[in-house]
Design brief:
Blueprint lengths: L2 H8 L2 H6 E9 L2 E8 L21 E8 L2 E8 L4
Parallel strand pairs: 2-4
Antiparallel strand pairs: 1-2, 3-4
Protein name: Transposase
Organism: Epilithonimonas bovis DSM 19482
């Protein structure tokens, strides 16, 4: 089993499919998972000449606890 398959069991599948885990921290019993959108042009824009222009402001989502620890997902979407 790949690490990605395990993550799909614990987190929403689309999150693992379209984002990379770039960092994680355990701070005082709070698990922080950091995601950045993959550098893949969406299908609906594939005919356009797009370049990534960095990221939008990070959003934070409170998720269900894992192994008794509160979880926060920090998500950064690409700016095209």
């Amino acid at each position: 089993m790949k690490t990605e398959d395990l993550l799909k069991l614990l987190l929403p599948e689309y999150l693992i499919e379209y984002f990379d885990v770039v960092k994680f921290e355990d701070i005082d019993g709070l698990l922080h998972l950091y995601f950045e959108e993959k550098n893949t042009i969406p299908k609906e824009f594939s005919v356009l000449q797009l370049q990534s222009k960095g990221f939008h402001e990070e959003i934070t989502v409170d998720d269900f606890p894992l192994r008794g620890k509160a979880v926060q997902l920090h998500i950064k979407r690409r700016r095209w």
